[in-house]
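hiii, so i know i said id send this last week but things got crazy w the move. better late than never?? heres the sequnce for the chain we talked about at the cafe, plus the structure i predicted for it. fair warning i was half asleep when i ran it
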Amino acid sequence: MIYITGDIHGTISVGQRFNTRNFPEQKELSKNDYVIVTGDFGLVWDGSKEDQYWLKWLQHTKPFTTLFIDGNHENFDLLEAYPTEQWNGGRIHRINDSIIHLMRGQVFTIEGQTFFTFGGAASHDIEYRKEGKSWWRREMPSQAEYEEGLQNLEKHNWQVDYILTHTCSTGALSYIKEHCGIHMELDEMHAYFDGVEGRTTYKQWYFGHFHRDMLLPKRQRLIYNDRIRLEEVIE
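okay and structure toks below
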């Protein structure tokens, strides 16, 4: 089984999101099942005892394997210090034996389904953050990552089952602004995802970042607190 959920922001909500009372379905899961976080995982943050406690809690106490793409609120210095390896067709950072970071611009095959993953987003509260302590320039992708993403989609004939990102396309952002009253400036990532949206065939696109749960046009889903099992059909 594969479940998708939104931002957990590290120690702020990991215990609440994944306890058995709020996530009773986990009782039927094993380490061969996956829960995917669509960015702002935040548990590779400062190497604190609290971070280490929750990483071990996910590793040893929870029955499932945790996968995540990066958001904008990640410590990229620590995250990128993990060695990269190949896993299920794409590049990862393995945090421990049951927590895996799905890197940008990759296509993974998981339980027979293909996933295009592309984390990152622009922070809009930089004035309240300190570089290297609570904000990192690597929240935004490099040109090489943009190009690798397109190359990997082309290798798969611009067809995947699912797209997992932290932020979204221009059209999706406009829809969110209209229906949620959220103000956020356009940036290069929105334009990049316009190109992905226009060329790629997919069943469903999931993204986080905006702290809402809502359906959008073009088979896209903004996700935050919800947990979606992929077998569920979303119209």
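btw Residues 49-61 form the longest helix (13 residues). thought thatd interest u
miss u guys!!
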